Amino acid sequence: MTPFMHQVQDLLNGQDCAAPHTVPSEEVTVAEAADTQVIIRSLAEQLVSEANAILSGSRECDGVISLVDQTGPGALAFTLGYADRSARIETVVSGHTATAQLVVGGVSQSRRLAGEDEVAALVLDLIAGN
User: Fold this and answer.
1) Main-chain dihedrals φ then ψ at residue 107, nearest 5 degrees
2) Where are the domains of the chain?
3) Per-residue pLDDT, 80
4) Which tens digit of pLDDT belongs to each residue from 99-110?
5) What kind and span of H or E run contains 46?
6) Model confidence over 13-57: pLDDT tens digits?
7) What are phi and psi of 24, to 5 degrees?
8) Long-range contacts, stretch 114-120, CB < 8 angstroms, 24+ apart
């Protein structure tokens, strides 16, 4: 098992998890924002696969985590869902700049994940229901 799979198992066994660290959203170049979105999306896919390997074999869970991509004019986004909870990571393009933000439970935070490492914390937070 991977270290993240152990974290998911520990969470199911009652261990607490920390909320993901966020920072205020800020405008950056479209290239920088798109690069970050792709990196975070790729990592999310890997972590969701690992988490679902544990969740699918557990009686203590509410199904598995979904990952749904959304694209449209001026935006790149994906949503992670678990039970009745969701978190959307989106990058919205406006002219030559773009802004990333985190939307949890349908409420925009005007914040973004502090870094790629926070994707794991976000997935664990969804499972925990915090």
Assistant:
1) -110, 120
2) 3-10+21-128
3) 98
4) 999 999 888 879
5) helix 30-55
6) 999 999 999 999 999 999 999 999 999 999 999 999 999 999 998
7) -60, 140
8) 114/20, 114/21, 114/22, 114/23, 115/21, 116/39, 116/40, 116/43, 118/20, 118/21, 118/22, 119/20, 119/40, 119/43, 119/44, 119/47, 120/4, 120/7, 120/47
